[in-house]
Design brief:
Layout lengths: L1 E5 L4 H12 L3 E6 L14 E4 L8 H5 L4 E4 L12 H20 L4 E5 L27 H19 L4 E6 L1 E3 L8 H10 L10 E6 H14 L5 E4 L2 E4 H12 L10 H18 L8 H6 L9 H7 L6 H14 L6
Parallel strand pairs: 1-2, 1-4, 2-3, 4-5, 5-6, 6-9, 7-8
Antiparallel strand pairs: 8-10
């Protein structure tokens, strides 16, 4: 069976490609010309070149494939031109799923995010049915992914056999960019974390997320969404685990979110506005920290058999990969 993977050179995508190859799939990777392909070096796969913003380039990439994994996305909390994020995440999703329908793809898995799921107000972790409060769509990334998932459901209702997966916060190897979470780990390892805010997130091994995609393809119910996550932790607990792994002391000072937000606005004004480079503390990332992003992944565990690798192991693999690949100074 041949699978087309968009975003194949990225963090989740490259881990998914490796897992597909282990499972005996033929893999075709959709890449833009000039993409950084280091995450795919040495892998036995087929390359197809195209751009999610160019519908004409996608039909040839889809042709001859049996299944589609649409894992590509613009994942950042700051861009000088946010319009690009909507072109890739929203319009790009429409373009690739339209090509999939035209070429008779038998089944598709769309990689959404936990950010499209509501944040519980009853003290319990959110699940796939938790209603989203529009006020929680903080920043262009969340908004664009919400709109993109809506596009994916439109194609499901048009007849495309589609399953949606909603990863929480994956960590591990091949976070080449790195992602916002990976950058937090890198900053920690480079001793740039001097305080923490009172917030929480759900951590999951990126390898489990990759396996969850394949399980969603093979066992998931079309028209269903699956949270791919594992353990809910406060940020303080995440830093404590990183301290145990690295030996670098975790920050002991806690600062209120309002103060962190003010610092982020100043940082974004100077770095993003004046210097035109990515800010160290994007405002959207701090605004997200106002609420605990705790999730319940029991549906994916129960229906798909989603693995639950201990998060300590996942964070240890991330630390080792960043260290071995030159992200840690000194």
């Amino acid at each position: 069976m041949k699978a087309l993977v968009t975003g194949a050179s990225g963090f989740i995508g490259s881990n998914l490609v490796r897992e597909l190859l282990r499972h005996g799939y033929e893999v075709r990777a959709l890449l833009r010309k000039g993409s950084d392909t280091r995450n795919l070096d040495g892998l036995k796969l087929e390359m197809a070149y195209g751009d999610l913003r160019d519908p004409r380039s996608l039909e040839g990439a889809v042709a001859g494939c049996d299944v589609l994994f649409h894992a590509a996305a613009c994942y950042t909390f700051w861009l000088p031109q946010p319009r690009l994020m909507y072109e890739i995440n929203v319009k790009g999703t429409e373009n690739i799923l339209s090509a999939a329908m035209k070429k008779g793809i038998k089944r598709a898995v769309y990689t959404s995010t936990c950010s499209t799921i509501g944040i519980s107000t009853n003290g319990l972790p959110s699940n796939e049915e938790t209603e989203l409060n529009p006020d929680d769509l903080v920043g262009h990334y969340k908004k664009s992914k919400y709109l993109a998932e809506s596009v994916a459901w439109k194609f499901y209702h048009l007849g495309l056999p589609l399953v949606v997966v909603n990863p929480t916060t994956p960590v591990g190897a091949y976070d080449i960019k790195p992602t916002p979470t990976g950058k937090m780990i890198v900053d920690y390892l480079n001793r740039r974390m001097f305080a923490y805010v009172e917030t929480g997130l759900n951590i999951v091994a990126v390898e489990d997320v990759a396996k969850g995609h394949i399980l969603a393809l093979e066992r998931g119910r079309p028209g269903q969404r699956y949270l791919l996550g594992n353990q809910n932790l406060t940020l303080k607990e995440v830093f404590f685990i990183l301290e145990q792994i690295s030996g670098i002391p975790a920050p002991r000072a806690k600062i209120p979110v309002w103060l962190a937000t003010g610092v982020a606005y100043i940082d974004e004004l100077i770095e993003g506005g004046l210097l035109r480079r990515p800010p160290r503390i994007p405002v959207a990332s701090v605004k997200m920290a106002r609420k605990f992003m705790f999730f319940d992944s029991s549906r994916a565990v129960r229906e798909l058999g989603l693995p639950q690798t201990p998060v300590e192991q996942a964070l240890e693999r991330a630390v080792r990969w960043f260290t071995d690949n030159g992200y840690v100074k000194g």
